[in-house]
């Protein structure tokens, strides 16, 4: 097996633009996390003004994922999971839930963090 860790690490010149809201950080804010900037909170609050139930909806979505993973790892016997569009790490991530039920479970996380929201990205 080849070690591709250098290819996966972020370039040293890559920077996070904290003046532009990012959906993963807004979602983290709605979930009650701590990994967001004031600009993300402001955007999240503006959206919440238009859709007051978004905080409950975000948490309900997270609870659904947890229930589904518990069911799949337990009753359905699934041992491999692909979590697509994972955003930022949070409490009770897919691997934590699945491995509590079935310790041998394997999880792959995939997301496209291509700085769509205006951050500086260097290829």
In short:
The chain is mostly helical.
Q: State the shape.
A: globular
The CATH topology name reads Rossmann fold
Distance between the termini: 25 Å
What is the strand arrangement across the widest sheet?
A: 1-2
The top level CATH class name: Alpha Beta
Task: Provide key terms for this protein.
disordered C terminus; Rossmann fold; 8% strand; mainly alpha; 5 helices; single chain; globular; disordered N terminus
Detail the topology: elements first, then pairings.
Blueprint: H1 5-8, H2 23-30, H3 38-50, H4 54-73, E1 80-84, H5 94-101, E2 106-110
Parallel strand pairs: 1-2
Helix pairs in contact: 2-3, 4-5
Would you kindly provide a written description of the structure presented here, covering whatever features stand out?
Helices cover 43% and strands 8% of the residues. With 123 residues, the chain is mostly helical. The protein has one domain (17-110): 3-Layer(aba) Sandwich (Rossmann fold). Mean pLDDT is 84; it is low at 1-7 and 117-123.
